[in-house]
Amino acid sequence: VSGSEPKIKIYDEEKRMLDIELTGEGMMPPGHRSRVYCVKYTKENPNILLSGGWDMRVIIWDLREARPERGYLGPMICGDGIDVCDNIIL
User: Fold this and answer.
1) What is the DSSP code (8-state) at residue 36?
2) What's the rounded Cα separation, in Å, for the pair 56 and 38?
3) How far is Cα of residue 71 from the mean position of the Cα atoms in its chain?
4) Are 39 and 32 in contact (CB under 8 A)?
5) Are 33 and 23 in contact (CB under 8 A)?
6) β-strand 36-41 against 48-53: which pairing, if any?
7) Which stretch of DSSP H or E encloses residue 18?
8) How far apart (Å, rounded) are the C-alpha atoms in residues 85 and 56?
9) pLDDT tens per residue across span 43-77
10) Which residues lie below 8 Å from residue 66, measured CB to CB, with a gap of 6+?
11) What is the DSSP letter of 16?
12) CA–CA gap between residue 41 and residue 37 (Å, rounded)
């Protein structure tokens, strides 16, 4: 789940509880600094998640570590406008 906060929440559907909260606070690379508009899992690795938003960053998250793996500065994403070519990502 993403939205008006600069974080991503991943819920366990069976337990109906929050499982992981991705903020990236105090980490390098840092997490989002503004609203997160879209998230997408890669097809080849369910532990890798991409997110983008108003802070002009796309972040690749490793869910096993619950931290940002890499970040790219540039695109301002204001909707469901993110895609990934899996043979390039991790």
Assistant:
1) E
2) 12
3) 10
4) no
5) no
6) antiparallel
7) strand 17-22
8) 20
9) 888 899 999 888 888 899 999 998 898 888 887 77
10) 20, 21, 22
11) T
12) 14
Query: Which residues on adjacent β-strands are paired with residue 59?
Result: 51, 71
pLDDT in tens, 28-50: 778 888 889 889 888 888 899 99
Scanning the structure block, which residue is given the tokens 């895609």? 83
Q: Which two tokens stand for residue 74?
A: 């540039």
Cα 37 from Cα 48, distance rounded (Å): 17
State the alpha helices, DSSP H only, in the chain. Answer: none
Q: Please state, in angstroms and rounded to a whole number, the distance separating the CA atoms of residues 52 and 32.
A: 8
Q: How far apart are CA 15 and CA 23, in angstroms?
A: 22
Burial class (CB in 10 A: 0-12, 13-18, 19+), 56: middle
SS3 83: coil
Tokens linked to 30: 């840092």
How long, in residues, is the chain?
90
